[in-house]
């Protein structure tokens, strides 16, 4: 039995898709489920309740369509933003755990923006990847050889 999961099924090779006879689509989490996922993401931090409340203040449309892994990445981005701000304000690294405030609504919002822009960049780079034949031709040219001549049909 082979099981696979992806947030980007369009990126899968058609040959691989043909070998997977059953496709089960799972829709992205609803607004309430996204709140629960955010609460789970920040459950181990000292001010988890405040961080989860700040997330719930975001409008549902801001995180609409995001998967659980997207929301975990949003949490990581928001946490890094909060950490950088605390260090800029002079927080001592050895006392960070006690001195860090709960994530703010703005931290979450910036995390969402960063995650969306990273996904968009990844999607664009995937879609604009050159075909394997053009990559091979460039490699051959870079190695000093001539690209193989194109075949022409003869009558």
Describe this entry's structure for a reader.
With 155 residues, the chain is mainly α. Helix content is 55%, strand content 0%. The chain has 7 helices and no strands. It has helices at 14-19, 31-41, 48-56, 68-88, 96-99, 105-127, 132-142. Helix 2 (31-41) packs across helix 4, helix 3 (48-56) packs across helix 6 and helix 4 (68-88) packs across helix 6. The relative contact order is 0.11. Residues 126-130 have low confidence and may be disordered.
- Uncertain segments: 126-130
**Main sheet summary:** none
Radius of gyration: 23 Å
User: Strand share of the residues?
Assistant: under 5%
Number of separate strands:
0
Distance between the termini: 50 Å
Task: Give the oligomer, counting copies of the same chain as homo and different chains as hetero.
Answer: single chain
The run of helices and strands is HHHHHHH
Features:
mainly alpha; 155 residues
Summarize the model shown:
With 155 residues, the chain is mainly α. It contains 7 helices and no strands.
Helix-strand layout with pairing:
Elements: H1 14-19, H2 31-41, H3 48-56, H4 68-88, H5 96-99, H6 105-127, H7 132-142
Helix pairs in contact: 2-3, 2-4, 3-6, 4-6
């Amino acid at each position: 039995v082979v099981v696979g999961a992806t947030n980007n099924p369009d990126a899968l090779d058609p040959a691989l898709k043909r070998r997977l006879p059953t496709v089960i689509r799972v829709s992205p989490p609803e607004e309430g489920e996204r709140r629960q996922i955010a609460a789970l993401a920040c459950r181990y931090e000292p001010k988890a309740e405040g961080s989860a409340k700040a997330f719930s203040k975001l409008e549902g449309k801001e995180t609409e369509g995001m998967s659980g892994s997207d929301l975990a990445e949003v949490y990581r981005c928001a946490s890094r933003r909060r950490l950088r701000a605390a260090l800029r304000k002079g927080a001592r690294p050895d006392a960070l755990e006690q001195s860090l405030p709960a994530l703010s609504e703005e931290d979450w919002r910036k995390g969402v923006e960063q995650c969306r822009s990273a996904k968009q960049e990844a999607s664009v780079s995937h879609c604009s990847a050159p075909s394997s034949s053009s990559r091979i031709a460039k490699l051959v040219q870079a190695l000093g050889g001539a690209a193989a001549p194109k075949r022409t049909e003869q009558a």
